Amino acid sequence: xxxxxxxxxxxxxxxxxxxxxxxxxxxxxxxxxxxxxxxxxxxxxxxxxxxxxxxxxxxxxxxxxxxxxxxxxxxxxxxxxxxxxxxxxxxxxxxxxxxxxxxxxxxxxxxxxxxxxxxxxxxxxxxxxxxxxxxxxxxxxxxxxxxxxxxxxxxxxxxxxxxxxxxxxxxxxxxxxxxxxxxxxxxxxxxxxxxxxxxxxxxxxxxxxxxxxxxxxxxxxxxxxxxxxxxxxxxxxx
Length: 238
What we know:
- This protein is of the alpha/beta class.
- It is built from 7 helices and 8 strands.
- An 8-stranded mixed beta sheet has the order 3-2-1-4-5-6-7-8, sandwiched between helices.
- Strand 1, helix 1 and strand 2 form a beta-alpha-beta unit.
C-alpha cells in the first residue's frame, strides 16, 4: 500500500512515540490527523510536520469523541494512544473507575476506533491498521500495573484474531510491540536509574517508525506481531 496521498490517523500523537510515527508517515507523503488530549503537544507535532498535519483534540476514552475522530475516514489508522496509570495504587487496590479507565484507553479505545474505521476502509478498497502494544503484554512475569499489561495482551490477541476476518476486504491489521523506547521521557527515566539497573540501550525511535511504515506498505503482512526488544534485533512473534 502506498502511503503517499493517504489519510492517516495517529492517536496519542502529541509527544513521544506517537509524534515520531506521525512525522514519519507525513514524511512518506500521508496527510496526518494528530489525535490527542494534549492540545499544546498536538499543535507542536503539527508545527513540526507542516501543512500535511492537522490536530484533533480527543479523549480516546469517550465514545462520541472517537466516533467524531473516525468520521474523517482514514485509510491508515495507528492505534498508539495508551499508557499506564500515573498514580498508584493499581489493580487490585485501585478503584474500579481508575483501573477501568486504563482498560478503556489501552484496549477499548483501539477496538472502537478500529471498528469505526472498517467501513470507510472497505469502501476505499482496503486500508492498514497498526496497533502499538507493549512488552508489558507478553510473558508470565509480574508487572506493576496488571490492568495495563492485561490490556496490552488483549491488543496483541485482537490483532491476530481480527486480521483474518477483514483480510478479504483488503484491510490489514498488524501490531508492533516495543520494549522501553528512546523517547525524551524514556531516556530521562533510564538515566535516573542507578547504572546497575539500566539494562540494555533503549529501542531506537527509528526502529519503531520503520516497523509502522513497513506494516503499512507491505501488502503481504497481516496479523503479524513484531517485537522490538532492547536486547535483540526486531523479530516476529508469529
